[in-house]
Specification:
10% helix; 60% strand; Porin; mainly beta; 322 residues
Length: 322
Amino acid sequence: MYNLLATQRLSQSMLKSLVTLCLILFFWDIPIAKSAGNSHYADGSEGFFCGFTPEPGFYIVNYNYWYTASSYKDNKGQDVAGLDFHVNVWATAPRFLYFTNKKIFGGLYGFYAAIPLYYAEIEAEQHSIELMNDSHLGIGDFFFSPLILGWHLGRGLHWTFSFDIYAPTGDYEAEKPANTLVSKNYWSFQPNLAFTFLTGPGIDISGKFTLEFNTTNKDYITPFFTKAEYSPGSSIHFDFAASFPFSSNFRAGINGFYFTQIEDDKLDGRKLENMKAQGFAIGPAFEITSGKWIISFKEQFELMAHNGPKGCVSWLNIYYDF
């Protein structure tokens, strides 16, 4: 009798382990790097006047970011069945920006560098079986631009081109899901083109296009706890904003973003089909100007998501002109 009970308990334990492994394999086929977006670029970071190049000088722009989501969408934009998912990410990224007096191709030349600090927490449970529960505070990947060019073309039209580079310098531990939100462990290269159109009584219409190319994470961990090479697919991002000045130091409007992945991710050279991420968000934005300070607040509600979380983004950005 004892042996029979022991055998039943062992069978139940083995069955539970098998079910857990199957669920982990299912969820892991959605790379953890997608947990809060499979991209270095922080969608929606740019807003009012993003195509307007300031005068020569030194500037600090402090980006403060909060992201929270309680659902994870599949390839069709539907909730993953039986998945209880929560992610929260907070980040602050001081950007040190300098514009020279020099011009290249008629555009004012500048450059910047930034080092982000992150706190991330992620939880996932499927059919009452815990898949992940992790949090981490650390330094994110260093990013910089050696080339920024700005043009003021008259008739209210302004353009800015930049080339951004993200280096895998942050805290990265492949075995800990929250760390993959803090550091991606691969390089990213991003050519950007932003515009600002000023019309009427100070109405601002702005947008920024970004094309992102990524290298390979050679330290990705598979469900079988073996290393693999994970290559995120390239993606296109578009931040947009429009505002109206209600006074000389206050303006309000809308802002948001759209992004879509244009190439499949690869795992050890194998394409992960039907896994391309996509998202769209929109919300209100406000800006206050006081002397050399500009403070902006933006809220962005994700209305659509595919192969990723769907939640809400909040921004508090502070600009200072030295």
